[in-house]
Specification:
eight-stranded mixed β-sheet, about 35% helix
């Protein structure tokens, strides 16, 4: 009896111990074991010992289910969730794909981007396959986003520019039906500005009719006009977004002043198109203009193609003076060279197929004297008496012609302008030729048979071996020469003023005394 009593006490003590709630939880081990044994007897698995741990985890998981009637704190989605929500529409089939004509061949206005990036991947450059596929889907959406504004006839992936806060994915396109509207807006802006200036002049003339203000002889520097759309630096139109799934933003056409200013500064991109470009010399625009200027510079320097792939179009009419070379076309009789010849390092088998940008900031030189002469004639009609001198005729700027060999490019601090290599020496029959620019790190091109492509993946900055030194500000303007006519005199003291007044009174009294005797003689 004593043994049975002790055993009952031990059982009750053990059960009490198992019924104790665990720290930080409202459950206990006794209930958990009961639920585990009940679930084990209900399911009766073959390996009961091996399944016990999994059953225990399942019972714990079921107890942790949140009740629907409890108010919960809302949690912000992670960056991966936000990116997945943003890119989900890219994977949704379009209405055209779901139609009856889904099996028919669809004309896509862009090259096989995955195939192109596959060739670059063989040379060790490019993007990941996952990112490339998402960019391909984004390029497919680009023509649909601007159907109401213009028609996108072709589009290709230009490259990716890294920024401090976000990156830029850049697409190069050819559009139709939008440039005329831009020109009309600019003309309206100019007309509105002229009308406002004329009104101000009329107000000034009304206020000061008697004494007209002096006319300033200073004239603002002549503004070099930008090139027309589909010509020169504005031959292509560019769209950017920060990541696949974002809305594409159309970049404005580049102006010569923006290219000239971009050559004199060195500034990293932020990834925000509307951010200001704080630099010296001052840049005339925002980051979207700076990005567009860098795109024009990189394209003109690094876009190359196998020699003989393009040829000048046959035109019976000779181009007029100042028009530059005619357009180029694909040569159907192009002969394919060996891969080793494209990667021999001489770069004689590669040519530039984008026009060179002159120091003026244009591909076709603009004569500023012609515009100055027009203004000079107008000034002569208004002021015939003024003597004015005509500006001197400047020397026209020139540069390398279109389809110039890349082997003629200047060296970069003693290095060749390009580095060429074969993607694989082990299996040369399936290798591709990869060339990389040393002047613009991140610019690459490949050639494989009749296929070639250019891409840029970098920070959008030119190579510079030495630390960047900004242009010094101009010297301080000299002071006006001192002289007696402009020297400021010191203010007189009170004693000097009193002495001056006293002397003036004495003179007046003396004059009055001289006049009095003359009056008495007349009487």
């Amino acid at each position: 009896q004593t043994t049975m009593a002790n055993l009952d006490e031990q059982v009750h003590a053990a059960k009490a111990y198992l019924l104790e709630t665990s720290a930080g939880s409202d459950s206990n081990l006794y209930d958990h074991l009961t639920d585990c044994l009940s679930k084990l007897l209900d399911e009766k698995p073959v390996n009961s010992l091996g399944s016990f741990e999994e059953i225990s985890r399942t019972v714990k998981r079921e107890r942790l289910r949140l009740r629907s009637n409890v108010i919960q704190e809302s949690q912000d989605p992670s960056n991966r969730v936000e990116l997945a929500i943003l890119q989900k529409p890219l994977f949704a089939p379009s209405e055209e794909d779901e139609g009856d004509d889904a099996d028919e061949e669809v004309v896509i206005p862009f090259p096989n981007f995955l195939e192109v990036m596959g060739y670059f991947e063989q040379g060790g450059v490019g993007l990941s396959k996952d990112e490339s596929f998402r960019i391909l889907l984004a390029l497919k959406q680009l023509p649909k986003e601007f159907t109401k504004e213009f028609t996108v006839s072709s589009v290709r992936f230009w490259g990716k520019v890294f920024g401090t806060e976000a990156n830029y994915i850049i697409a190069e396109a050819e559009i139709e039906g939008e440039e005329e509207e831009e020109e009309e807006e600019e003309e309206l802006t100019k007309e509105g500005g002229e009308e406002g200036d004329s009104e101000d002049k009329e107000d000034e003339e009304g206020e000061e009719k008697d004494e007209p203000p002096p006319k300033s002889q200073w004239k603002p520097p002549l503004v070099i006009p930008k090139e027309e759309p589909k010509t020169g630096t504005n031959k292509k139109t560019y769209f950017v977004c920060n990541k696949p799934g974002d809305r594409w933003n159309k970049l404005p056409h580049v102006k010569p002043a923006e290219i000239v200013a971009a050559r004199n500064i060195r500034k990293a991109f932020t990834g925000i198109l509307s951010s200001p470009v704080i630099s010296y010399p001052p840049f005339p625009g925002r980051e979207e203009n700076y990005l567009r200027a860098q795109i024009a510079r990189i394209s003109a320097t690094t876009h190359i193609s196998p020699s003989g792939y393009f040829q000048q179009e046959e035109d019976e009419e000779e181009p007029e003076e100042g028009e530059g070379p005619g357009p180029i076309e694909v040569n159907n009789d192009f002969e394919i060279n060996k891969i080793s010849e494209y990667a021999d390092g001489s770069m004689n088998n590669w040519t530039h197929h984008v026009e060179y940008i002159l120091p003026q900031g244009r591909c076709q030189w603009f004569n500023p004297v012609q515009k100055a002469e027009d203004e000079f004639d107008e000034g002569e009609e208004d002021d015939d008496d003024d003597e004015k001198e005509q500006p001197d005729e400047p020397e026209p700027e020139s540069g390398p012609q279109l389809l110039t060999s890349a082997g003629e490019d200047s060296t970069v601090d003693g290095m060749p302008a390009w580095s060429a290599r074969v993607s694989s020496n082990t299996i040369p029959q399936y290798a591709v030729a990869i060339v990389s620019s040393n002047l613009w790190p991140g610019a690459h091109a490949f050639a494989a048979g009749r296929k070639f492509e250019n891409v840029y993946i970098g920070f959008g900055l030119k190579y510079n071996s030495a630390p960047f030194n900004p242009i010094l500000p101009p010297p301080v303007q000299e002071e006006f020469p001192d002289g007696a006519d402009i020297t400021e005199t010191t203010d007189p003291t009170v004693e000097q003023e009193n002495a001056l007044k006293k002397s003036q009174e004495e003179k007046e009294n003396a004059q009055e005394e001289e006049e009095e005797p003359e009056d008495s003689d007349d009487d």
